[in-house]
Sequence to fold (248 residues):
Amino acid sequence: MASVTIRFYEELNAFLPQGKRGRPLTVDIPDGCTVKAMIEDLGVPHTEVDLILVNGESVDFSCRPAEGARISVYPVFESWDISSLSRVRPVPLREVRFALDVHLGRLARLLRMFGFDALYRNRVDDEELVRLARLEKRIVLTRDRGLLKRRNVTHGYLVRSLVPRHQLAEVVRRFDLAGSARLGRRCVSCNVALERVSRDKVLQRLPPAVARGYTEFSECPACRRVYWRGSHWQRMTELAESLGLRNS
Fold:
């Protein structure tokens, strides 16, 4: 057994028991234990980690700390670029393509509403979700901590709130999406990018009041659903403003 000192910073402490938060912890680890295994044994999913320092030097998840090592573990940095420093992953943590588990259907619709690519299938199991996320280079969003500890999950986030709008606010903050919204550009049902269409092309599918009152329309090329800037558009705009989202 080797004895090391580890400290978690900022929101990573939320994964620890109350008495272990915000202070150095002395832990015994088996010989050859990786920092990834040690971090997850303490309850922190590796997908929440963006920088690990061992004795002041950045290391990757496979590092095996020696006796007496001092380990510092940090979450995503919002205010400064550590891409040249961090070694825990070969590609950036932030990619605005998501894969959501079966419990986050309403969040998926909200993300799509603001133009974010959000894969969601209400009958997919965890194994398939992880496979698709890895294949399509998506960030896994889930409320299941265990799912984020799977070896094949490299990018993910544990959603804390139970309220969809609050969940959206979490994701916006976590992945710095304030300037990346594209309102009304994606089908909320299919997750497919919408296409602009002429009024004449969709006229027969429009309610009479909509046909008379609007001139600009979009259509989902997958499900053929038609979109226009009705009363929902004002609600979307108000929600975007409350979250600090800027339409790009």
About this structure: The helical segments are 35-41, 105-113, 126-135, 145-148, 164-174, 199-202, 208-213, 231-243. The longest helix spans residues 231-243.
